[in-house]
Write a structure and sequence with these properties.
The chain is mostly helical. It has helices at 2-29, 35-47, 56-62, 68-80, 89-98, 102-115, 122-130, 137-146, 155-161, 168-177, 180-189, 195-206, 213-219, 225-237, 240-243, 247-256, 260-273, 281-290, 294-307, 315-322, 328-341. The chain folds into three domains: 16-95, Leucine-rich Repeat Variant (Alpha Horseshoe); 168-238, Leucine-rich Repeat Variant (Alpha Horseshoe), CATH 1.25.10.10; 242-345, Leucine-rich Repeat Variant, CATH 1.25.10.10. Helix 1 crosses helix 2, helix 3 (56-62) packs antiparallel against helix 4 and helix 17 (260-273) runs parallel beside helix 19.
């Protein structure tokens, strides 16, 4: 038993030395004359993450390599070091700001995001400034989002980036990750004069999941149909267990929205909710009896059926629809709804 323990201890020591030797070998390979050898070494060091942190100085030098693959793999490797790579922040900022090749600058922004904020705040300031550089603004926004609440000082710059076509979606997602400061900026953007800003701010708010419901419900009354479509789509994507919190707003869409497609989606959402949508019975009866568009009446009948016995007030309207021989689809839906409401098997 003692012998087995000694052998195991020796094996563990051997493995740890082997790993250390591999890192040393890859560091040495960063100076190899062959481009492929250098590129592979940089990538392998990155794949080891912070366990290869002693390679950081060598990788910082390799970032200056004339070969693009070596350069990109070295930047990638520095990013994979995470917080341990903070000493490389000035080097990566320099690459992001001065390198001619756009893809290289984008790689640098991504690496800064993975390393996270440095103590001096230099990476945050550099990434916030990069939001105004169109060809890397999206990657800068993504990187700031990875900072989480620690990146809250970048919230105003990200709010401004919501108006930039290149960075809108990424900026909205990043703001949602920054905590209260980012959420506040998104909420203020919901009333922006720019339609696109409101659309992306709505999408950003939706990333808050259940906490997004009150704001998304409000956006169902936005003057822009595109914003309303974004809001109702986001609500639906959150699932019925979440969007049931917006039932009054969804019912209002059914009652008064001028866009038929939006009303149809709202009715379908009410149908998903089943008995929980009982407060929508009156609005659905109005659709069934007054709406000219057949599809809306069809889905209204189905929604009433899904509500079940709680929709008993709709029985007269459904019976009338069931007897309408000119609209077979609506009639069949009404008959099916009556069985569900009257609980007939």
């Amino acid at each position: 038993m003692l012998r087995r323990g000694i052998v195991l201890a020796i094996c563990i020591v051997c493995v740890s030395h082997a790993r250390a030797d591999v890192v040393d070998l890859y560091i040495k390979d960063l100076k190899d004359k062959d481009d492929k050898v250098r590129a592979r070494a940089a990538y392998q060091l990155g794949s080891r993450g912070a366990a290869a942190k002693k390679a950081i100085p060598a990788l910082m030098e390799s970032v200056k390599d004339a070969n693009d693959e070596v350069k990109h793999n070295s930047i990638y490797a520095l990013g994979e070091m995470g917080k341990e790579g903070s000493e490389a922040v000035p080097t990566l900022i320099d690459v992001m700001q001065k390198e001619k090749a756009v893809d290289t600058r984008c790689f640098a922004a991504q690496a800064l995001g993975k390393i996270g904020p440095d103590e001096d705040g230099k990476s945050l300031k550099a990434l916030a400034a990069a939001l105004k550089v169109s060809d890397i603004s999206k990657f800068a926004a993504d990187a700031l989002g990875k900072f989480g609440p620690a990146g809250k000082e970048a919230a105003p710059a990200l709010r401004e980036a919501l108006a930039s076509p290149e960075a809108q979606k990424a900026a909205a997602a990043a703001l949602a990750e920054l905590g209260p400061d980012g959420v506040k900026q998104l909420q203020e953007a919901l009333t922006d004069k720019n339609e696109d800003v409101r659309i992306y701010a709505t999408g950003g708010i939706a990333l808050l999941k259940k906490d997004a419901v009150p704001d998304l419900a409000k956006m169902l009354q936005d003057k822009s149909v595109k914003v309303r479509i974004e809001a109702i789509g986001d609500l639906k994507d959150l699932g019925k267990d979440v969007f049931k919190g917006a039932i009054p707003a969804i019912i209002e869409v059914v009652k008064s929205d001028k866009d038929g497609g939006l009303r149809l989606r709202a009715i379908q959402m009410l149908s998903e909710l089943g008995p929980a949508a009982k407060d929508a019975v009156g609005a659905l009866i109005d659709v069934l009896t007054k709406e000219k568009e057949q599809d809306l009446r069809l889905y209204a009948a189905e929604a009433l059926g899904s509500i079940g016995p709680a929709a008993k007030d709709a029985i007269p309207a459904l019976k009338a629809a069931a007897e309408n021989k000119e609209e077979e689809l609506v009639a069949d839906a009404a008959k099916a709804a009556l069985k569900l409401i009257q609980d007939k098997k």
